[in-house]
Amino acid sequence: MTIREAKKIHLDSPSAALDISCFLEEITGFSKTALLLNERTELNDSQENTFLKYCQMRNKGLPVAYILHKKDFYARTFYVDENVLIPKPDTEILVERSIAILKEKFSMEKISAADVCTGSGCIGVSVILERGDNFDQLIMTDISPLALDIAKKNAEALVKDQNLFDKITFHKGDLLEGLGNFHMILSNPPYVPRLLAEELLKDGRNEPLLALDGDVTHTSTDGLALPKRLIDQILSHLIPGGVFLMELGEYNIEKARDYAMEKGFKNLSIHKDLEGQLRVLEGWLF
Q1: CA angle, corner 207, sides to 205 and 209, nearest 5?
Q2: Model's pTM, two decimal places?
Q3: Residues 6+ positions from 224 with CB-CB distance below 8 Å
Q4: Which one, of 6, 56, 8, lies nearest residue 28 by Cα?
Q5: In whole angstroms, what is the distance from residue 198 CA to residue 192 CA?
Q6: CA-to-CA distance for 169 and 140, rounded, in angstroms?
Q7: Which tens digits make up the pLDDT trace of 213-251?
Q8: Contact 91, 249 (CB under 8 A)
Q9: Among 79, 53, 56, 77, residue whose Cα is nearest residue 66
Q10: Separation between Cα atoms, residue 78 and residue 88, nearest integer Å
Q11: pLDDT at 181
């Protein structure tokens, strides 16, 4: 099979051409441009078998990121598997706003921060790599030990400065329980209504329900049971003058903002994602 023939393989995917290109780049080591220039190149037996295996997995609905075990996020490549959510471009809005706040409000300070429900670690790792001098400590916490292992794997791979890596602590726990106080709390918690989360997973994407289901306690149907509990905890773990940034859905973020306002948070604002949807809730404690 040549690269040109491989490109014509049927793939049951809305992004078939891009997916096939990703697979071919992975197995040949060619860039996108090199693939175009080498379309007559024959894949060897090992490459062809791997390519066909990847296509079979994609046809079953498995995302490319899980097949290749990697996903680009904020100009870096993170390891991912089915134990963590795949980092999404919209989450970069939370990272960008966090960096802006560190520059504007904490530029002369050494802060303590937490990345709650860290998953792959893409938020915490990205922020500390951009603003390492701002940090005294960063705690990356998750209830899933498997997710926490992946966060640590990514931190070890991407945080090359040992002094900076030593500022990171990995904590297995339920949200902020058992932790101290922080100047900044960042989180992309489970916030999808349970029925919607279950529906989303029917396409075979294999993302963990635990990382999606905001109604995990079965006390709500709007995806906010867990985010509200986190807001309650943030209230007692945020240092006065501190800030939290939380990713939520466009369908429930305003309700979460109103809840945070009732709890006493000030200067609450909502930031839009790349598609103009309401995505990140920001709140301060004074």
Answers
A1: 125
A2: 0.95
A3: 191, 214, 215, 252, 255, 256, 259
A4: 6
A5: 9
A6: 6
A7: 999 887 889 999 999 999 999 999 999 999 999 999 999
A8: no
A9: 79
A10: 12
A11: 98
